[in-house]
Amino acid sequence: MPSTIRRFDVLGVGVSAIDLDIAVAEIARWVDAREQHYVCVTGVHGVMESQLDVELRAIHNASGLTTPDGMPMVWAGRWAGLPVQRVYGPDLMLRLCARAVEQEWSSYFYGGRNGVPEQLAQRLTARFPGLRVAGTYSPPFRALTPDEDRAVIERINAAEPDLLYIGLSTPKQERWMASHVGMLRVPALLGVGAAFDIHAGALRQAPGWIQRSGLEWLFRLAVEPRRLWRRYLSNNPRFVWQLARRRPVPLPLEPVRAPQAIRVRS
């Protein structure tokens, strides 16, 4: 039966009121039922990108889960009166890998620079003995041609994974999942972004106390200033200002339904 997980409205984006246990249980339900869904792991960046991009906002709202990736999302959910805990992409990946070993699920890793998905798979199989890796693929840093895209779909479907992790960053990974969810015979597509580099050992992760304080953005800015300064210095103040004017509210309960692949911009 379709599950009902409460969401709350954060500037038009319906974020799931969940914790890590609920997220893993829901994804396990998809795998067991062979339902097809995608997961958006969303923080301030995803919400603010959705303010100017109606298509991206619709993609978030059509997801099986849109997880509260950062502490601002958690605080917004609690402001709306709902019990919410952070569901951070790297943590979700680790919990699902542990569950995958128990359930004998297979995992496919799509994204990252050349060599990153292979390094990621190697480190995860060392950390979780018995983890089944169905395949890895590092796409080029450009839009795939129609022939290349068909080849990728055939390659993934032939591998028959239960979990497909996408590491392309926001909003590219959300667009990719939304346009492929109905074409891929995979129950769960998970857009986990920086989790690829973190668990491959290519990117430093913020200490736990920084994550819990809501200052992880400052840590990441210090680690990757040239890539992230514009994002944080633009998005964060606008988020606070807009949220002060539009309080998060709970959304009506609706069943999670399998989305159909949609044509989206690259």
Classify the secondary structure makeup into a structural class: alpha/beta
How many domains is the backbone divided into? 1
Radius of gyration: 17 Å
CATH topology: Rossmann fold
Number of strands: 9
Mean pLDDT over all positions: 90
Shape: globular
> What are the low-pLDDT stretches, counting only 5+ consecutive residues below 50?
none
The SSE order reads: EEHEHHEHHEHEHEHEHHHHE
First-to-last CA distance: 33 Å
Major sheet? 6 strands, parallel
Helix tally equals: 12
The portion of residues assigned to helices is 40-55%
Strand coverage percent: 15-25%
Do you know the CATH architecture? 3-Layer(aba) Sandwich
CATH class: Alpha Beta
Instruction: Strand order, main sheet: write it out.
Output: 4-3-8-7-5-6
Give an account of the 3D structure:
- The protein is an alpha/beta fold and 266 residues long.
- The chain has a single domain, classed as 3-Layer(aba) Sandwich (Rossmann fold), CATH 3.40.50.
- It has helices at residues 20-33, 44-51, 54-61, 71-79, 89-103, 116-127, 146-159, 172-180, 195-200, 208-213, 216-223, 225-245; strands at residues 7-10, 13-16, 37-42, 65-68, 106-111, 132-137, 163-167, 188-191, 249-250.
- Strands 4-3-8-7-5-6 form a six-stranded parallel sheet, with helices on both faces. Strands 2-1-9 form a three-stranded antiparallel sheet.
- β5 (106-111), α6 and β6 form a beta-alpha-beta unit.
- α2 (44-51) crosses α3 and α11 (216-223) packs antiparallel against α12 (225-245).
- The longest helix has 21 residues, at 225-245.
- The radius of gyration is 17 Å and the shape is globular.
- The mean pLDDT is 90.
